[in-house]
Structure formats: structure tokens, C-alpha cells
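Sample intake sheet
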Amino acid sequence: LTSQDLRTIVALVRAQRPDALIVVAGESMGGSSAIAAFGSDAPPDADRVVLLAPGVWGWSSQSAFNRAGLWAAARLMGARQVEPPSFAVRDIRASDNTLELIRNGRDPLSILSTRFDSLYGLVDLMETATLRLGHIEKPTLLLYGSHDQIITKRPMRRALEQAGERPNLTTGYYADGWHILNRDLQAETVFADVEAWLRDPARPLPSGAPAVLPTLQADPKTR
């Protein structure tokens, strides 16, 4: 989904429902796409943005080994498709909801193999999201889980520090949250917070979830 795609979709919805509250929600890479679009010079004509563990693991957060390896792979064998290494499948969990992970893995629409040039483009997108988060002008809700093993704490901290103080940005940190927040075992808590924020962005989240950046800054592992 490109920024222009998102602008077009929102414009079509706005034309059909001119008085509706239009909210764009993006999870993981979808969050990256939403940030890239809403942080651009021509943001979509939506009213609010919800970001669930947005992908912000861009070049500035990658190791030198990752940067060099992906650069070379994208240019020398960009069309080659690769699957996640076995250790990633075995040791990195996206959620504490095991049944949901099994369902996703068996979904015939799931893309399990990815081209090297697509991976390069994904990191490009996540770097753009890191740089543009602070440029979003619409009221924005960003939620993040303590156990996220996909977008880890250091990249998230970097992105939020890059964004700086934003009065339009509300964030929530879930001590029991993972990456797929809307499928975790505590998903109902996330849903309730999103609903409350949509009704009144100025009120605190009902879960009492603390702000993300101060929580990460207090964690010595993110330094």
C-alpha cells in the first residue's frame, strides 16, 4: 500500500461519507505505511490515525552487518525469495496467542517467502516512518507492547525521540503486550483503549497504560 493508494482510498470514503469520522489504523508494516503517508507533505484527508506497534526498524536502527548484507543481497540477487530462518520461526514470537499464530501460519494468503529487494524496500519504508512520525499533524494514537520481539524497544525509542514532544500524539505501553496487539490475549484491553480514544482523544486511556517513550527511557536495556 503506497501513500498515494492510501490518499485515494481515504478520498473515496470521504466522497461517500463526507460527515463521517475517518480513522486510518495501521499495524506493523501497515503502521509504517500510515506514518509515511500522514507525515508527508500531502497527507490523506482522514481525521485520526491509530498505530499498533508500527514498523520503525529502519536503516538507522540496523546493524552495519544487516545494512551491508541487505544492500548486497538486494542488488546481486534481488528477485530471489527467502523464508525466515528457522531460529526466527522457533525463537521469535509475534504474540502470546498461540492459536492465532497457528492460524496465521496456515492461512493460504500468508506470504511466507519474500524477495530480497522487497526486504530492502521494507527497511526503506521503516526508515521513512522513523523520520516522519513527528510530522503527523492529525491526532494520533500509538500503542506498543513490552514483549514485542519484532519491533524491539531500541528502534521504537529512537523513533519517538526523533518525533519529539507532540501534543497530538497519545501513546500507550502495555506490560503484557506483544507485537500483534489486536490478537494478543489482552487484545480486549487494546480495543477498549482505542474505542475510548476515538470517542475523546483528550482523555487518558482507560487501561492506565503509561506513555511509551518515558517507559522506554527508564529501561536500561534500551540505552
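Comment: Residues 139 and 168 are 5 Å apart (CA to CA). The radius of gyration is 18 Å.
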